[in-house]
Give the backbone structure.
Amino acid sequence: MIEASRLLLDPLIAWPWLLALGALGLIALVIYGIGRGRAPLTRLLALAVLVAAIANPSLVEEEREPLPSVVGVVVDRSDSMDFGERTAIADAALNALQTEMDAEAALDVRLIEAETSGDGTRLIGALEGLLADVPRDRIAGSILITDGQVHDVPQDLSRLSELGPIHALIAGDPDAGDRRITLVEAPNFGIVGERADFIVRVDDPDGGRVGITVAVNGGREQTIIVETGQDERIPIEIERRGDNIVVFEAPPGRRELTLANNRTASTFSGVRDGLRVLLVTGRPNSAGRVWRDLLKSDPSVDLVHFTILRPPYKQDITPLEEMALIAFPTEELFEEKLTGFDLLIFDQYERRGVITMAYLADVARYVDEGGALLIVAGEDFAGPASLARTPLAGVLPALPTGRIMTERIVPELSDAGRRHTVTEALQGEEWGAWLRHVEAVAETGDVLMTTPDGAPLLTVDRVGEGRVGQLLSDQIWLWARGYDGGGPFADLIRRMVHWLMKEPELDERQLQLIADGDTVRANLRTLADRAAPLLIETPDGAFLEPEWREDGPGSYSAEVPVDQLGLYRAQSGGLETVALNGPANPREFAALEATQDVLGPLVSLSGGGVFGLENVGDVPDLRMVSRTARAEGNNWLGLRERGAYAVRSSTSLPLLPGLIGVLIALGVLIFAWRREGR
């Protein structure tokens, strides 16, 4: 304990009134002096005694217990500290400082280790929370041990001025370089088939030009040359409706701290601006109106429908105005506007001289380059005028044998059909019969529906970049009319059309990767009997191999815990996909160089110092300094001796009780009057 004395003033009236009384007394004395009064000093003494009495002075004797000064130490344990020897340097500096601080009995050390929070390093928030309950007159200073990449330094630094001198110990080689790629601007959505502009930037301490790779939805990579240090605009074609993931990746640079920031990604939504469908009906038939009504009922479909009423070679006496409204615009449809259609449907079409072989070759090329084709086979598909005897034969999944079967059959789902996204939802229903189908042999693709004896009725296939569907019967309209109980006509055709249009949710060979905080989940759809092994690449280049769990026929899932933000890539059986965990450009990896620039202004304003720690063992000395002394030097940092204490007991002795003071003042005034009366 320390004994101390101090003078305490406890006015009988409020301080403003006391000061006003003193001021009025002085004014009166000035007027008295101007009037040549004979006792100014006596009156001044009386005024002083009166004011002192009202101020009620007392002598306070206290027993004080000294309180230790508090120093806050924050150690950066974020992901960016894992590069090089930063963690070892920080640990060595912490141990050395703790040894020196423990030797100071007047210091109370508070320590916190701050890990990556959200998508950045938040040391300032950690420091404020650490010292939140400490009186500001007890804070000796603060020490931050970090690589300098701190993401919560406030713009208004004045609120941190009460945390004492703040010292920053920067661990790491300041000359280490790192190449990184940043997504500067990305759209949220775009129209399918059109291009969306992305702006990326590659930063490299060595400068120059770099070839970055771009991949959409885990597909084929494209290389683009960009200039480092500049924003580059890159147009990306939107492939499909729904979520699309575009990945930008820069190759390793000459100097690299990590490859985790050499890759960035963005998720954006593809929106269809209407589906353009061309329906060509080879002859008037019972299914024609059913097809047209179904497609027209979908507001997202823009349907162009032609029915060929009379081929060019056929002659009859029926007036043209009663046969057709217009001639079939072959050149316009199959030369000028073919690629503008999202889906082409041939309904019971046969070669009748309307669409030439050259145009049909164009259709085959249209499919190979990403188009969609649906063939609804009628009786003519089995004859010499069949589309199977044209250039389209190269894209058809099934070829006719030449026989037309007129028996009553009830369609069934094949094993592949029970797993395929087009038909899996149609299981468990009673279907009506069909009365005719074309016998065919499946050459490629997948058979989804069959006759009871296994002959194909519905086949699908991927051809190049496009897709083909083939219905080997013209009897599906019976389901729409409710014959023999009907069947799922609308559901089947809608799902078939959407699969041909590459809607992602109907992709039968699909690998999905979903990143959600501390978990990554993979989902696989496949027509294979067994799932291929799963391989997941983490943002730091490591690989995970979780086991698949079978959820149903052709459906598998796997889940694995993760602890990193960034881009994850999955592979299984030739399928690839990516997922983004957290933001596209995690701030923790946006800049990895050890730097003094971020904390420099804060440290300077607080009166602290910045010290570079390039090697293990580099650490400044620690000194205790007074409240007003300089708190940093060439190789030392200072903590202030605050001198805080707690009062354990006190006694008070009045020096001039009010009544006695008033009596003394009156006595002095009477003396002054007597002197003036002489």
About this structure: Residues 212 and 250 are 5 Å apart (CA to CA). The two ends are 59 Å apart (CA to CA). The mean pLDDT is 84. DSSP finds 14 helices and 36 strands in the chain.
